[in-house]
Amino acid sequence: MKYILVTGGVISGIGKGVIASSFGTILKCCNIPITSIKIDPYLNVDAGTFSPYEHGEVYVLDDGGEVDLDLGNYERFLDVTLHSDNNITTGKIYQHVITKERRGDFLGKTVQVVPHITDAIQEWVERVAHQPVDGEGTKPQVCVVELGGTIGDIEGMPFVEAFRQFQFRVKKENFCCAHVSLVPQPKSTGEAKTKPTQASVRELRGLGLSPDLIVCRSESPIDLTAKAKISNFCHVGPDQVICIHDLPSIYRVPMVMESQGIVQFFNDRLQLDIPMPPPLRFMHKWRSLAERFDTLRRELTIGLVGKYTKLKDAYASVSKALQHAAVAAGYKLHLQYIEAADLETTTKTDNPVQYHEAWQQLCKSDGVIVPGGFGQRGMEGKIEACRWCRESHKPFLGICLGLQAAVIEFSRNVLHLQDANTTENNPDTLHPVVVDMPEHNPGQLGGTMRLGKRVTVFSSDMTSIVRQLYEKRDCIEERHRHRYEVNPKYVPDLEAAGMKFVGHDSEKVRMEVMELEGHPFYVAVQYHPEYLSRPLKPSPPFLGLVLASCGKLGAYLARGCQLSPRQLSDDDTGERAAPSPDVPTCCFHYAL
572 in a domain, yes or no? Predict the structure, then answer.
């Protein structure tokens, strides 16, 4: 097993996750089986109880693990299925060691950070690195490990010490350290400043890890002089300094790395015996994707009505899934973040300018998405967005809480149940159209929701756009993360009024997919389809929203779910009527 450790210096949030994912992408294109591990030095056992404002979205894996959003980057880039153990936190390690101590496994010895915590970290990494993640049972050959935070952080010290020991445990030819550092370029001079990188590398080396590769992050390309300076003062060769400046899209990062000789470096440093691939064929899918992304001209505006819009990483997977779908359809995505609370009448009184600006953004959007969330704040704004999309026939996609908001709005304004609400926000409501699941609401918040991949079964006796988008499959598997669900007691009345629940769980008790009769595209799902979206394989509900928003959904379905620039050219009429139930389907054909 070969290990690539990715550390960060100067500041956090400089793109270690994308760099680590790009390493894996390049090696996977060389037919090297890859796995990834993300280390988060916080004391939380997992990311499940975090506010999205802390670390961005909570990403959910197949096995129900609630993890850092960087694991989403790994899954999207590498097209693998990771496990909850691929995310290591200080809380997990300490919990593991303390459990062993309570059992008496240490035979009365004093339990200390060194060696017990550091040994546990090394054993965890070695164990997880050998677990297959490609769905075919192939044992990985290279494990990319990202150490979160910044070198020098006190909470990361046990992990740095663990890897200082680990490099000798697995031997030098099997271990490579890549340090990602910021190279600032002050606008007053425009000169690239290397001192922060020098200081960061000096600190890393003082802790016992000497970087084999330095990845310099900068706003603009840095010149050869700065690169030579970093090489000279950081004890690495010039070919061991990789420069990644801000690029039009993250899909360009692997190509920029490859152009600077990263394949040859890993081949020599880790003794991988990679046969050098033909230049024209190597990573051709990624090159095509990047070229397509950069050359798109037609713009599509999607309004995202959310509760955490001050931090875009709070909806990282949603924005990526929309981007995947827009690129496949041939459109440049303009994602308009709309604060849900700004759509409420209380904001109209307190801040009328903010209220009218939010509604203007919503009305100008070609389509609207209402994603998941928790709590009462902004809920009425989400409900108002659902009402406007329903009444104005605007393409709409609701996810998790978005489904529940659509059901509440429909119950209030169509069924005239004025008090309709969710028991999360009003436990005493007379019409609890959304209720909690007792088995998933035991009072302890961490890891108790309905989590992970679960089966959704489509109703065979109902016409469904969503089912056609999924190639008319009888059942699908998608990832879930929720504690509340649509109350089955109200489903007959909702369906009689035109809100059809076309997908259920395997026991036909929980409502999973909703469509509105007589609407071009008014769809909501209880699961989170964004977690399984991939750059070359967009999520069907997101693709449906994008195509409906640009008037191409009818043509796409009529052609049997085929997508190409020729088939979806501007000459298409783009009618938005619901398709016939006997429309044929076939495999997805990408324009790429």
Answer: no
358/227 same-domain check: no
Question: What is the model's pLDDT at position 178?
Answer: 96
| Other beta carbons within 10 Å of 60 | 27
Residue showing tokens 């037609």: 298
Asked whether residue 310 falls in the same domain as residue 229, the answer is no
Closest to 52 measured CA to CA, from 383, 374, 474, 501? 374
Q: Contact 73/15 with Cβ under 8 angstroms?
A: no
Among residues 232, 256, 291, which one ends one of the domains? 291
Q: Does some domain include residue 226? A: yes
- Chain segment 218-238, per-residue pLDDT in tens: 999 988 889 999 999 998 999
**Alpha-carbon span 181 to 150, nearest angstrom:** 9
pLDDT one-digit tens code per residue, 63-100: 999 998 989 999 998 999 999 999 999 999 999 999 99
| Structural domains in the chain (count) | 2
241 belongs to a structural domain: yes
Q: How far apart are the first and last CA of the chain?
A: 34
What pTM was estimated for this model as a whole?
0.89
pLDDT digits (tens, 9 = 90+) for 535-557: 889 999 999 999 999 999 988 88
* 394 and 505 inside one domain: yes
Measured CA distances, 516 to 401, 410, 501, 582 (Å): 17, 10, 9, 19
> Which residues are paired to 347 by β-bridges?
none
Beta partners for 454?
A: 478
Contacts of 104 (CB under 8 A, 6+ apart): none
316 and 252 part of one domain: no
In 314-393, DSSP assigns E strands to 332-339, 367-370
Joined together, the tokens standing for residue 154 give 């006190």
Residues 405 and 461 in one domain: yes
pLDDT digit string (tens) for 546-588? 999 999 998 888 887 776 654 344 434 343 333 333 333 333 3
Average pLDDT over residues 325-329: 92
d(CA 28, CA 44): 32
Q: Return the CATH number at 91.
A: 3.40.50.300
Q: Within a domain: residue 576?
A: no
Q: β-pairing, 499-505 with 511-516?
A: antiparallel
- Are 497 and 529 found together in one domain? yes
Residue pair 441/450 in contact by the 8 Å Cβ criterion: no
In this structure, the answer to whether residues 108 and 222 fall within a common structural domain is yes
DSSP 304-322: EEES-TTSGGGGHHHHHHH
Range of the domain at 127: 2-291
Cβ(472)–Cβ(498) below 8 Å: no
| Residues catalogued as catalytic | 400, 528, 530
